[in-house]
Amino acid sequence: MSLKSHHLSFLTDLDEKLCSEDNIEQIMNLQPEGLIFENENNAFSPLDHLINNWRGESILSANALIIKKALGDLWADAIDQFNSLEYKNPKTKLSILHELKPYISEEESQQISEIGINAIWTILKDSSHPLFNKIDDFKNIFTYRTVVIYFFKLRFLAHLADQIGTKLTLDNILNSSSFIQQCFPAGSSLYFSSISLQNHPYIWFSPSKYFTQTIRDVTPLFLTINLTELTKIITFSQSKYLNFSEKNYSHALSHKEFGFFLNTLLIYLPKWLRGKGTSPVTTNSKKPINALKTRFTGDYLKAITLAHSLDQEEHISQQWSEVITADINEEQFASAKFFKICHEFQNLTLLTKVAEKQKHDVIPLIAHIMQDKSRAALPQHQGTLFCDAQNNDVFYKRIVLNLTSLPTTNSYYHLLKSVQDEAHILNDQGFIFVLTNQKLFVPSQVDRLKTFFKKIKLEAMCDFSELKGRGEIAKYIYIFSKNRGASDDYTLNSQKHLKGNCPTFNFTGELLHFAQFEIISKTFSSFLEHKDINQTPVLVQKLPQNFHFQYFQDAIIDGRILSAGSTNSVNVTHPSFFDKIIKNGIPLKDAFQIELIADEHKRSDHFLGFQLDVDRNYPYAIIVDYKNPQIINLEIISSDSLPAVKEQLGTVTSFYLKLLPLNHNISIETLRTYFANEIGKQIIQLTVHEKSLTPNKIQKNIENLLIPKFLTQIGSTYNAKVETEKFFNLTHETIVSLSPENLRTLYDSNEKHIISLLEKSPNVTLGKLTELNQTLKKIKIQISENDINQTSIFFNPLIINDISNKSLLTPLLPDNHEVYVEFISSASNHHQVIGEVNFIKNNNDPFLVLNDNNTGNPIVNIHSDSKLLLFLQFFLEHNTNLTFSLFIHQMRVPSIEQLNNAFQNFKQVGYQLNIITLELDKLIKSTFFTQLTKE
Among residues 382, 468, 781, 852, which is most buried (max CB within 10 A)? Predict the structure, then answer.
């Protein structure tokens, strides 16, 4: 069954037939036995055939059927009167000709112009005229619309009279303009301008005297029917006269639940984005209601505006601070002025109901809202005294742009241009809501989008791309505003990068019938009402009927979106992954006490000319670094190193907070690894967003940053084998002394047990594994840069085997040109025992200092290559009680070339360490992934 067959707002042809007057009695007399339904027990169950929450809107009431019959009678009367308009006011005939022109081609319009102002009636008298059929169709459509507008007016008059406590007489009805002028006198404070109440092409109609009783009877009935029933009365079986065809009408977009979602976007989302609160109810019933001037333009306008109207009528009992006053930008004959006039009468009727339900005086309320709407149409930044009344500039607070039917070529350009065109008539504080199937962030359009964002700001977006059964609802809703300069989130930093953030709402699932959209609309409304934008970095909810709702904040830099929702299963914003991360994560504030580090001038005292930090009771600090525009970086450091880091990074693009662990189980090194992990980086990007570049908001976001829950848990009893524990505790000295084969064997022999420990006690094991991995990486870098200073390197077989050939060794003295021995003490000291040995790195002239064991005074300095000096230091550390003379005259050393070759062979250890660290990285990453995605 298609979506359209589930729609509750319009009857099918069968509905119309069943609800005709001739069949009412028959329907009422039907017995259940006369109907056969197939189910498990072959018994009738209404629940098997009704949509959830359906309240019978598709069935017309008895009063609605009476109004429907009156519509047909008055239509016939209007057709008769139309034929006599040939002899009426030329101004009326001219306005009707203007309505005809969009309905016919340019060539046909030229033919009409040649005939003159009476062309329509002249052609209708000649059935052989080539334009007769088209003009006759126009007459039927035009007169039908005239009666429809008349009914909308009657409905407004009935409600207005009821609210002011006046009995609506036949004279008031037939002279409605006079009655309305009495309520809103021209020149008074209550007067307002309105297209529906002024001269327009449809205002000529007044029922003939033969239908005065019909009018007298039908007018009070408008008090008993709602907008849904009125819409059905005027649409079924006459659809061709309203042009409600599938091409320009959507049953999904016209549904009242979509209207609720749309109105929530228009009214409450902007307030939520600005942090002004979004409760739909105000306790002050005397607070004036203001007009929220809104422009609807694009595709499916009749459906969208109907949905918005149905929702406003549905929630009329709530106390409002704003009411949407819509301007319809429909230029085709399918709607044109007719549609605008109908909608304005609907708005006027709505205001009468608002006055009743919300305890306002109806006349002042209508006047205030309509005047407020008119004031919103005046140019901004102009004083009233000098305002040009003829200026047609209009500035809207909201613009709804439905672009679902984009051109096949240059569709992306059309989207951006349409938004920019609408921005010219947008209030400085206003918002544009664009519904489109065109994805905004396209890699090939980065430069164009970057230019676009310099003038237009993306405030938020809704993603329905994974919501099945949504009908004509677009995949994406983008919310834009004007980029108001340097005060906005989109600013040019020192590197000229255009940066910002975008709150994103994702809805996934499948609509089996469109009434289920209520789940989505109510979830969205509740989120805006109860969640604060500055304190809710991420959120995921499982909803009834297998729907999912996700909220996060995307980072946008130079036209690129860094953390958008994706079908990539390892992207944190993927629905299933995101859900599991929320379940298996905790906010950072649950593991640490987090406080801003105050300005050093305010938090220090002067003592003897020095500034002393009086707040040193925290062991760690966290740096939030915005310097890199591509990614926000977090780093945890010890508090002792903070002054140096702060001096290096500054305070322009970096923020500093102190961390006090609340849980002794957490490993700082593991947390650092998580921040550097792919998943951790995405979580950081979603949470610590660009919009919060103030210290207090930064603190809130850091507090809400998700970290894996397992980092604070011990898990099962940690029980490592002795060999594995030794592997975890490998020191720098031990590692550099092992051959590549021994390193490989050591890792392979412990790998399975390590994996088992990670499953049973991930927190403790991951902490040990992370620290070991960091040690291995440091040694790997030192080897690649020839920066190993540990003497234990000479225990490594790759080195000791290369330099142990005695035939290749050379004495230190007297003819070793690669070594210079500098005696700095008298010869009498040369028989003393060598004590402490110091390696001095003196740029290009390193040397070894040999000190007297008794006095500690330096006796000899040895100058040479750093590798040779390191070898001598190694020898002396493992050969004690040597005298200076014995060592100098009997010591034999390898050549520098031998040592260079040995160290080159030693790089094989670095290659093996690189392989092992890559495997450990995968193991660590896999552990984070497994623990964060547990069911």
Answer: 852
